[in-house]
Amino acid sequence: MSSPPTEANQTPDSPSVIRGRNMNFWFGTGELRKQILYDISIDVAAGEIVLLTGPSGSGKTTLLSLLGGLRHLMDGELVVLSHCMHRASADELVLVRREIGFIFQQHNLLEFLTARQNVELMLQLQPAVSADERRRRAESVLTDVGLADRLDYHPAKLSGGQKQRVAVARALVGGPRLILADEPTAALDSQSGRDVANLLQRLARTNGCPVLMVTHDSRILDIADRVIEMEDGRISAA
Amino acid sequence: MKLAVASAGVVVAVMLMLVQLGIREGAMDGSVSFVRKIQSDLCLISPRTKTIFQSTALPRRLLYRLLADPDVERVQELYLGQARWRNPWTYQEWPISIYGLDPEHCLVDLKGYAGYSSLLHQRDRAVFDQLSRDTYGPVVETVARNGFMETEVNRRLVRVVGSIRGGVSITTDGNLYLTPENFLRVLPERNPGGIDVGLIKLKPGADPQTVRDRLAPLLGGEAIIMSRQELVDAEVRFVREVTPIDFIFGMGAMVGFFIGFVVVYQILYTEVTNHLPQFATLKAMGFTNRYLLQVVISQAFMLSILGYFPGFFLAIWLYGVAERAIQMEFSMTVARALLVFGFTLLMCGLSGAIAVRKAQSADPADVF
Questions:
Q1: Where residue A8 falls among pLDDT bands split at 50, 70, 90?
Q2: Could you state, in order of their start, the residue ranges of all structural domains in chain B?
Q3: In chain A, which residues touch B (CB < 8 A)?
């Protein structure tokens, strides 16, 4: 049923970006308590692209939100980017989140801001970056994702693939040390999905930034260094 | 469009606050406008008097006795009373305030009153207040056309020989100015030896405070002496305490504040609810609750600025409407404009601060 811990796959000298041990998670309390994750252990090393697959309800997204500091870990041990996440305060979780680039299934762009402003918004979290620098970096990242000619478009004027690429640019602009993505290609046609996947792969390779991606999309499995399968809240194959 | 509807709520609140506070101040100013026109350095009233418009008389001889002081230049008596004016066009009688005051070297600043001096010293002559309400009939027009107009005041035939601009208030609808002699003819039951206010003019260079302190012990228990400003303050205090002006219009302004508060809160709450996924995204990306507060508060301030200016001009327009309707003067003051602007900011800021709690409750984990 449950597979051996993933650490078996790691070379000992590879620095872990994520290191989780025996994590359990449940929703609700008392009689309504429903356990979602059972005894999960996971490691992600720098520069790795790891895909997380499995049927609906297997707990992939919950695991991703735990790793991203969006939920509090209840039981077990988890270190993300050298922050100890177990019993971390809400403020500490915010600090961890600032070092992570998130890409969501829905792009969640602010519709009243242009593509460039959406990307620049992320850099407001770094007060040391001047307005000119923000603009320059946003433009350069948007150029990287192939949107140099769409800088001042509002999201409503962009196609689904273009919006998702803006979301990728937004996740990347702050220079994250880890990228967490939740089905970034699910809402896209095969060509746009391919583009986004290739983009992530290229960026992971050039920046050495690890990518952990939840996906159902078998079309993009080829970019992965490693695939972790989940079922019923347990890791079934890694 | 949504913005227009949103700021409309603020417009109504701003307008309500400005109009209510404006009427409050206008009513207050109207009630003490006559007292403010008094030009004498010192005034004498009875210790029983709370307001000179419902005064207890004080002995006239006390006023004339003050002439013995070397710093007193001259004194003047002022009689105040109520009479019934018959509107000769409708034959109805209306109460009217009457003032017994010598137009020569008059110690009350009534523009044009001195010009009627020779006419007023004849028997049963009076000057009418142009700002009196319409219920007294077209007096001003008739006087302008015929040179005079006759009617009954307290069943006595009186000839109006002219009109001046005084001003009415919530306590008086019309004014009639006459000499003390004619005043006593209209009110024959009044004792000529009992005046309502004694006006005292000092010689140039005399200090009113020093003279006041010197004269006060000489008056005994039948009169008190005070400076012009003290009399004005006492009248303002009386209007504050006895009439419900402050309460009624203060409450009206407060209602405006709460209407604005609720409207702005509803708008912001809806806005926040509609954008909850975006707020959650911002939080997931590492933005703090503080940042969300800034976003919502700046939206609230934008609403207050957008709503304030239309509300301001609407209020000025309504002041004009009210002035024509009830013939009382309302004017916008810088202090009131600033006060209401401050209240508008407070109103929007407060509702923003409450609405933002919804945004802060956005769970960043919901975006996955």
A1: very low
A2: 2-30+244-367, 47-222
A3: 61, 64-65, 68, 70-71, 94-95, 97-98, 100, 102, 104-106, 108, 110, 121-122, 125, 170, 182
